[in-house]
């Protein structure tokens, strides 16, 4: 792609902003990383709350104009860092920032990306089958048009938790090549029973899975969490907002493991078991996430699935980095 697609001009409402700011208290005078800048809602919130310095990270070139504009208007208190939050440590090194007080994440695809048909994230409006957050590299069309049937089934099962993954993969390989979101959605629907009036579109899980794969979203989340653990000061706060179960389970397990707690095993991540000799690098209260209240969910439907998990960095050393598992075929090949 040669031209960077712009972000839409419609205002973006950051999810759980009040709760994220409360989790990061005290914000005044803090050095903050907004790991998922997007349209800048969290960054502006932190600046308004008195943060001394906010560093906004985003991999999407379409986010950079808003980031540069905020940088110019912030009086030196905001810096935009183009890149992946999984590379947070390298980005902070380049910016000359050794440690920070707060790291905040708003994981998943943004509403601005979903709303742009030309980005190919959604089938609500037909568009090119793209789905790339960075607008570079492998597209969704590249994947579904070239991958082996068993690989497509694995991805749809693993990242979409779709029980009919093998049937869908067969329908995709028979109908390809694809160029548009509408064509792929129709192929997926052809492999599944018609939905009821109150059910989600049958293509939803498959689109989610392909998007996560194309952008390595779970790998990025894990790398971002590890980087946050390594760069947060003792007493610093981690605030992570997720929007679907895979993201939330990964964040929950990471924090619980680092706090020395045990959780149900996840098939999406391999982590070292808690070791009595390894001091917890995070402290948490309870296990329930923070969710949006009725007023926010009424005003912003996207917030209904949002979950905020919070952890405080201790003064213990960071743990060895875990690794995302890649040997998940056995569960898809049932």
Automatic annotation (TrEMBL):
Catalytic activity line of the entry: cytidine(1402) in 16S rRNA + S-adenosyl-L-methionine = N(4)-methylcytidine(1402) in 16S rRNA + S-adenosyl-L-homocysteine + H(+)
Annotated residues for binding of S-adenosyl-L-methionine: 40-42, 58, 85, 106, 113
Listed SUPFAM superfamilies: Putative methyltransferase TM0872, insert domain (SSF81799), S-adenosyl-L-methionine-dependent methyltransferases (SSF53335)
GO molecular function, one term: methyltransferase activity
UniProt keyword list: Cytoplasm, Methyltransferase, rRNA processing, S-adenosyl-L-methionine, Transferase
Subcellular location: Cytoplasm
Biological process terms in GO annotation: methylation
InterPro entries for this protein: RsmH, SAM-dep_MeTrfase_MraW_recog, SAM-dependent_MTases_sf
Broad class of enzyme this protein falls into: transferase
Primary site of residence: cytoplasm
EC number: 2.1.1.199
Residue ranges of the TM segments: none
Transferase listed as a keyword: yes
Family according to the record: Belongs to the methyltransferase superfamily. RsmH family.
Function: Specifically methylates the N4 position of cytidine in position 1402 (C1402) of 16S rRNA.
NCBIfam families: 16S rRNA (cytosine(1402)-N(4))-methyltransferase RsmH (TIGR00006)
Protein name per the record: Ribosomal RNA small subunit methyltransferase H
Source organism of the structure: Tistrella arctica
Recorded name of the encoding gene: rsmH
